[in-house]
Amino acid sequence: MNVQIEFSTIAEMFLARTRTEENTSKPVYSRKAAGKYEKITYKQLREMTECFAIGLLEIGVKRGDRVGIISENRLEWPIVSFAISCIGAADVPIFPMLSAKQVEYIYENCGAICIIVSNAFQLGKVLKALPQLPELRHIIVMNDDAKGSHYLVKTMSQIMMIGNEAMPPEERSNYFASMAAQVEPDNLVSIIYTSGTTGNPKGVMLTHRNLCANIFSTLQAIPITSQDVFLSYLPLCHSYERTAGFYCSFASGAVTAFAESIERVPDNIREVQPTILTSVPQLFERIRHRTLASIEKESPAKKKIFAWALRIGAQYILKQREHGNIGVLLEMQYRLADKLVFSKIRERLGGRLRLFVSGGASLPVETAVFFALLGFAIIEGYGLTESSPILTANRQGSEEIGTVGKPLANVEIQLADDGEILARGPNIMKGYWNDLTSTDEAIDKDGWLHTGDVGVFSSSGNLKITDRKKHIFVSSGGKNITPLPIESAVAQSKYVEYCILIGEKREFCCALIAPNFTELKNELQEIANLPDRELASHSLAYTLIEKEIAERLADFAKYERIRRFVILAEPLTIETGELTPKYSVKRKSVEAKYADAIKKLYEKTDN
Fold this sequence. Notes:
Elements: H1 10-21, E1 27-33, E2 36-41, H2 42-58, E3 66-70, H3 76-86, E4 90-94, H4 100-110, E5 114-117, H5 120-129, E6 138-141, E7 153-155, H6 156-166, H7 169-181, E8 188-193, E9 203-207, H8 208-221, E10 229-232, H9 239-252, E11 255-258, H10 265-272, E12 276-279, H11 281-296, H12 300-321, H13 328-348, E13 355-358, H14 365-373, E14 377-383, E15 390-393, E16 406-407, E17 412-415, E18 420-424, E19 431-432, H15 436-442, E20 449-457, E21 463-468, E22 473-474, E23 480-481, H16 483-491, E24 496-502, E25 509-515, H17 517-523, H18 532-536, H19 539-552, E26 562-567, H20 587-593, H21 595-603
Parallel strand pairs: 1-11, 3-4, 3-5, 5-6, 6-7, 10-11, 12-13, 13-14, 25-26
Antiparallel strand pairs: 1-2, 8-9, 9-19, 14-15, 15-16, 17-18, 18-20, 20-21, 22-23, 24-25
């Protein structure tokens, strides 16, 4: 097991790890400042967390209170979260891109007494929602220049100063440790509101026991050591990054560097040179498409070498996974392909990456194979916020592409009669905040969490997700249609960002296609100067997408194939409400927005 410290609460984990490293200069975090990355040691982290925690206690935040966090990934995020955990309160983190109305709903629902925000923009949302937040007593801003003049608002540095001046350093440290020691495994550590694709979000109550159980079992499955370096860019408010990229990194003694923004991730990878990157499939697909697009601009000779390298790589990986004899010739050819092609691509990704961890959505098979050719392992896992979140994961060295691996050591998985995935273990949530009905619907009397996902086990015992239970629909002809494999196949086209299958109680399947306008314009130079709206409706674009769909669905049953489609003139975005913060499609929102377009698809008469 990779964990070298023992703990039963997040507070105990923080105390144990910081004590272990307090007399060393080993960094725990790294952030960009004045144009370069600077390191933060465990001792510095412990002092800042102590001051902030005591400051919270001094202004009246107490054990059991709910404290909101609205912030991008930055050093202050773990300081705030650890401080809240160590005084026995529960944090309620949300995505920074949520609207003032969503902020109001969540923090009114959980009765937040304090909300911590990163900057003036986030502060503005809270102040707008303030009339509907009767229990809110304090607003804390991380940026010193964003305080404003409202009487409830203080800066994070002011709170830390209050904590620093409350008592001498040694007394403060002892008092902080005593508070942390009083935190119990079954206390709430966090309420994470699920973004959901329909309806209002529900607050998932996670205890220290839930999260600690998931940290230990995840570290048994994924090899993380104190020598590893993470680059954190996925939102820390999301349960996947919180456990895999935040807690597991910290428990292992690894270093976490914070990306400046999602746009700067490629540059930050080269600067930080991480060894592990937790990500969602969308980033892997972008890297693959960008790499293939860059090759298209090279000379015919270089393109020929690249195609040869891919072919040799595919043969090598196939032999390797079959545990067959690779042979001297193929071994030599692969080494040459690696030297000429694959090593160059790895250098663009920092040169030290040894492991990718993928979650949040299904990883396309073509993408997983592409990264395997480059010599990268992608550990694909599966879970839900309600399970803290990780339930299954592939194991390094025995990955089965197209599956999400085997259950973690302390997790039970079984399939219901209708194929729904059920999970049970110490990582399963306490329930939904103030929502017994939804809790009873999600967790049955025997303790099984009903995930809402449908899956099957492979012959090797690895779990394969086939779709969301609520997404499976029946055509008017009585055929059961599973959208995910169809949509994923179409979305593998570099010209397609998203494919949304339509067909519930319909005679045949249609689709809404959200295109990749950049790739369309690169391919269709003759209409590249047209505005997106005109390009989307142009016959050349339609013909190109039609050909892509036909090729990628050739092996599907006739009733599963897309007969008609429309190319959307605008991208699907989080801001416009069509995507969740983890880039999942909100089907009902999209179908409602494009109801007229869908109606027209089914009104057409086939020629």
